[in-house]
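Protocol step 6 of 9: fold each sequence in the batch and record its structure tokens directly after the sequence line. For illustration, a two-sequence batch is reproduced in full.

Sequence one:
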Amino acid sequence: MASTSKQNNLRQELSEMTFEEIQCLRDKIGTKLCNKVLFEAKPERNLKNFHRENKNRPREESSKKQVSRFREVIPIKAKANRDPRFGDLSGTYDDKLFRKSYYFVKDMKNNEKKELKIAYKKETDPEKKQELKLLINKYENQERSEKRKIEKSVKKAEAQREQKEQLKKGQKPFYRTKSMSHKQELVEKYKELQKGNKLDKYLIRKRKKLLQKERKNEINV
């Protein structure tokens, strides 16, 4: 207590002195001792054992400790990524319902294809005409692909219906394997190409693809 009061008296005396007088005193007794009297810091609180009255209140940190640039002020919960294709929340995919709900897309594509055909007939520039032809072919290929998909789903539904009827009658149902279904699809595709006189073009394209595949295998070897 005595030392504290003595220190306070010294501070009081120093506070009444001019800057020049303080400078002279610093030169006499030394800068370290003079600063100790003037600026001696109060004892810091032990922050490790410090308990906040409210846990939601920000934590008190020492001013001497450097603050990190990357500091989490408000904790944020990490977002869990969810793939809608495999989640139960998105429901199950029904191809028939999907086609029914988005049937207007088919009408839009048909209208676009008609407009492209009209533009193709009017176009005189060979390059632009070729671009229009490729777009028309793209639409036609999509139509054929969609048609095959519908036919496939119809046949699958028919096969399932036949299997159920056989089970009701007490007969052993016939289950078609994937290889059998694939062979049946090839036969039907062959017949379709024959009707449209497109079989030769299809076989030529197939041969080209096989040759390209063989050349790539030879280069890799």
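Sequence two, same batch, same settings:
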Amino acid sequence: MSKCKYVLAGLVGVLLMLTGCVTVTPEEPVVVNGYAGYLEKIKLPQGCKINIAVIDFNTPGSIISQKTFDIARAPVPFKFIFPVETIDKNIDYGVVAMITYQGKVIFQTYEKFKVINNDKFTTEVLMRQVK
């Protein structure tokens, strides 16, 4: 073997060792979870839907993420997962929810349930009956 081949083989070996030393650990995602429910002792009619959303409280109409699905009873568990690089420290994140029946809102949140930038990632969202 020529001297050039030995040098090349040595370089390849060093490069292989170096790639083994570099470990990139992805950042953990931001997880927001909890329950959405109400205190009234009312049974939901069949065919209700719940909409749970993470919003920006400072920007009206700004929905960061939302989920809508059929429900039979409350409280309803929820979970949102966000890549850490999508979180903005200047946004006032919060969770809101509403329950609809035949297209009409029958329960909704009236309070702010803030999350993420206040280091709170689990919340119980309380809705009240719409009169």
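Proceed to step 7 once all outputs are recorded. Observation for sequence two: Helices lie at 3-21.
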